[in-house]
Amino acid sequence: MEGRNGYLAQRHHASRGFSPQALSVLTILHNFDLKRPDGSTAAQRLFGHPFPDLFESVLSTFTELPMPRRSSVSQQPNPWYGQSVPA
């Protein structure tokens, strides 16, 4: 199997299926990111004009990422780590 249809068929035959959100993401990727050898996407061929790069436009919407949250479990130091061993 090859291409998007092959991928979709493989996923459906594995009895997992797609959530509606995953299916819409795959459709967007297919229409706006997958390119033919001539460099055109399905959306460019349908609408007749180029679109901005999909991933660049998504990355431009991100601001600085938040810091990871602190663990609720206090970290116990490992007593064996960092101890010197006499030679």
Notes on the structure:
It is a single chain. This protein is mainly α. The protein is 41% helix and 0% strand. The chain contains four helices and no strands. It has helices at residues 3-13, 20-32, 42-47, 54-59. The chain is elongated and about 75 Å long. The mean pLDDT is 80.
Write the layout of secondary structure elements.
Layout lengths: L2 H11 L6 H13 L9 H6 L6 H6 L28
Features:
87 residues; elongated
Q: Which regions are unreliable across 5 or more consecutive residues at pLDDT < 50?
A: none
Output mean pLDDT: 80
Question: What's the overall geometry?
Answer: elongated
Number of strands: 0
Structural class: mainly alpha
Helical percentage: 40-55%
Order of helices and strands: HHHH
Main beta sheet: strand number and arrangement? none
Helix count from the secondary structure assignment: 4
Span between termini: 61 Å
In what range is the share of β-strand residues?
under 5%
The Cα radius of gyration reads 24 Å
